[in-house]
Amino acid sequence: MVAAGLPAVGALAPDFTLPSTSGSDVTLSSLRGRNVLLAFFPLAFTSTCTQEMCSFSEDYEQFRVAETVVLPISVDSVPTLKEFKAKERLSVDLLSDFKRDVSRRYGTLMEDFFFSSRAYVLIDSDGIVRWTYREDTPGTRRENADLLSEIEALA
Questions:
Q1: Which candidate, 113, 122, 127, 125, places its Cα nearest to that of 142?
Q2: Cβ(31)–Cβ(93) below 8 Å
Q3: Is 54 an annotated catalytic residue?
Q4: Calpha distance 103→139 (Å, rounded)
Q5: Which pTM value belongs to this model?
Q6: How many CB atoms lie within 10 A of CB 20?
Q7: What is the mean pLDDT of each run of 10 residues along the chain (155 residues)?
Q8: Shortest CA distance to 96 belongs to which of 37, 21, 22?
C-alpha cells in the first residue's frame, strides 16, 4: 500500500538529492527556473518501464524545447540503472532512490512490493507542484503527448 498521497497541487515540491546515471547527484531545488517532470517508475528492465524510458529518449528534444527537465526515478541501484540506460541507449539520465526516501516522501512507494508505483509530478519553474497523476497499475503509463500537453498548460 502507498503510505501517503502525491504532493498537493499548489504546494512547494519536496526537495531531494539523488544519485544519477550521469555520475553526479541531482538536487531538485537546483533546477529552479525550469519545469521539472518527475516520472516515478517501478523497475528497470520491465516491459512498460522500458517502453516509457525509450519514449522519453525519443521525445527528449520536445521536452527540452518545452523547457522541462525529465527526471525518471526508480528504486533500482545506480549500477542497475546505468546498465539499463546503456542497454536501451537512453538519452535521459535516471535517478536512483535506492533507499526509497523520495518515493516515500512523494507517496509513490508501494510498501508491500518495496518499489514505486508509476506516477508523475509536474513542477513549475518556481518549484510549485502543478499536476500529479498516479497510474492504476504498474503496466500502464501516460503517453508523452499527454505529458507535453500538461506542460503546455503551464505556459
A1: 122
A2: no
A3: no
A4: 18
A5: 0.92
A6: 18
A7: 74 97 97 96 91 92 94 97 96 96 94 90 97 89 92 88
A8: 21
User: Whole-angstrom Cα distance, residue 19 to residue 2?
Assistant: 23
What is the CATH architecture of 17-152? 3-Layer(aba) Sandwich (3.40)
pLDDT for 84 = 96
The whole-angstrom separation of Cα 94 and Cα 116 is 14
Of 2, 36, 49, 119, which residue is the catalytic one? 49
- Rounded CA-CA distance 78/102 in Å is 15
Q: Which cell goes with 84? A: 539499463
Report how many helices (DSSP H) and strands (DSSP E) the chain contains, helices first.
5, 9
- Nine cell digits for residue 119: 506516477
The answer to whether 3 and 104 have CB atoms below 8 angstroms apart is: yes
Euclidean distance between CA atoms 127 and 96, whole angstroms: 21
Element housing 27 (H / E):
strand 25-27
Domain ranges of the chain: 17-152
Q: Which residues contact 91 (CB under 8 A, 6 or more apart)?
A: 57, 60
Please answer whether residues 110 and 117 qualify as being in contact, where contact means their C-beta atoms are separated by less than 8 angstroms.
yes
